[in-house]
Each structure stands twice: as structure tokens, then as C-alpha cells.
Amino acid sequence: xxxxxxxxxxxxxxxxxxxxxxxxxxxxxxxxxxxxxxxxxxxxxxxxxxxxxxxxxxxxxxxxxxxxxxxxxxxxxxxxxxxxxxxxxxxxxxxxxxxxxxxxxxxxxxxxxxxxxxxxxxxxxxxxxxxxxxxxxxxxxxxxxxxxxxxxxxxxxxxxxxxxxxxxxxxxxxxxxxxxxxxxxxxxxxxxxxxxxxxxxxxxxxxxxxxxxxxxxxxxxxxxxxxxxxxxxxxxxxxxxxxxxxxxxxxxxxxxxxxxxxxxxxxxxxxxxxxxxxxxxxxxxxxxxxxxxx
Length: 294
What we know:
Elements: H1 20-62, E1 68-72, H2 80-86, H3 100-107, E2 113-121, E3 125-132, E4 135-139, E5 143-146, E6 151-152, E7 169-171, H4 177-192, E8 198-203, E9 209-213, E10 218-222, H5 226-240, E11 248-252, E12 260-263, H6 273-293
Parallel strand pairs: 1-3, 4-7, 7-8, 10-11
Antiparallel strand pairs: 2-3, 4-5, 5-6, 8-9, 9-10, 11-12
């Protein structure tokens, strides 16, 4: 009978604990890593601080007060002096602290303006570019008709600057301003051909139209066949009314044939005292001569 074999037990070798020197070396390596990270953070923060201080100093250098306001597009209606006066409050303010939108709104309170563009030019200048209305006629007496067909009410220092004599006066229902302007443009040359100056048109709520001539004479044109009615007058004007228009209040063309003329009442010349005295003397002399003859 074979002898039984005993199992062989192999002991596993236990790892040796690190030496103290090795432990301190590992700790030192970790500390070095932390020191590098900390140094990088400190260096980054220091660099950011330097850049921040430099940027702040540069920004302070940029904060220059406005001393010059340059105006482009100034006109007699909206002068450069008026713009500078309106923006007096921003003069001396740091250029980057000015609210350009608020400045624009402030300027546009002047109804003569259609645009007001404001921009900065460093170090100390505001540039204001303005665009104004271009009126072609008066509307309803106290308003103006712009060349683009819009109507505005002038305000500010520009009131009274317009040449009333050179600007036609139009009056009529709201929304009819451009139609009346076109009618004015079409009638003016025809009247000028016979020496008459058209100064304005008036249209009532029914659409009946009057032409106003220089001197105040009105021509009642009615609502229909305006050109043909006016031509009826122009065909005979030189033979009938030329040189007498200062005596005419109105000419009514609203007839099928012909027209009616309303004449002014010419004031009688006052009787002079000298004429009265001379008449008395003459009558007395005539009486004496009559007595002598008898």
C-alpha cells in the first residue's frame, strides 16, 4: 500500500512596509505638486490683478469730458447754436457716460427735425448730424406741408423764419393737403400766363374750391370742370379785367356760361376844407358880380 503524500503548504511572502525614508519622499512629492499648483494660482491672480489695474487706469484715461459739439446740417430753422444750447447739460460730462439715445430724443422734440444722429469722437467731441423738414406750403394757417407730403407744426426758435409771401397757403379737410398742392401746381402757370399770381387754395367740406390771388381777390372755381372754368376767365381777362383787379373782391366761375364779378366799394375821397372855403368865396364873388350887373 502506497504511502499517502502530505500536502505541501507554500507560505506567501508578506510585502515589506515602506521605509520611513520612502514615506517622506512620497509626502515631499505631493507637497511639491501642491506648491506648483498654488504658485500657478498665485501667479495667475497676480497677473489678472496687474491687468485689471492697467485696464482701470486706461479706462480712466478714456474718461474725458465733452468740450466740443460739432453740428452737421444746421439751418436757419434749426441752427448749430440752438443744438449746442439744447445740449449744454452734457458739456463737461464724461464722453462714455453720455446716453446717446436720450440726447437724440431731446433733440427730436423740435418738430422741424426729421432725424438726429449723435455719435462720439474720442477724446472730447460729440458729432450731431441733423435733417430737417423741407416745407413747400402752409397748411391750415399754422402748419406746414413737407415735400414728402407730411404735415407738421413748427415750433422752437424757427417760428417766423419762413417767408410767408413766397410760400402758398392751402386749406381744406384733413388728408387733402397733397391733392390741393398738386392742384396749386397745375393752376399756377396758367394764371401767371396772364400776369396773375396764385397765392393759395381753399377747399370746403363739400369739395368746392377757391383760388386766392395776390391782393386777396378770390376766384370761386366750384367742384367740377375747374380747369375749363378757369380757362373761360383767362380767355377774356386781358380785355375785361386787366388792370382792374385791385377793385375786384371775387370772381365767380360757377356758371354754365360766363362769370360774375363782385366789385369792391371804393371809398369816396374826403372833401377838403380848402375846397369848401374856395367855393364859398367864389359864390360870394358871383353874387357881387350879379348885383353889379343888375
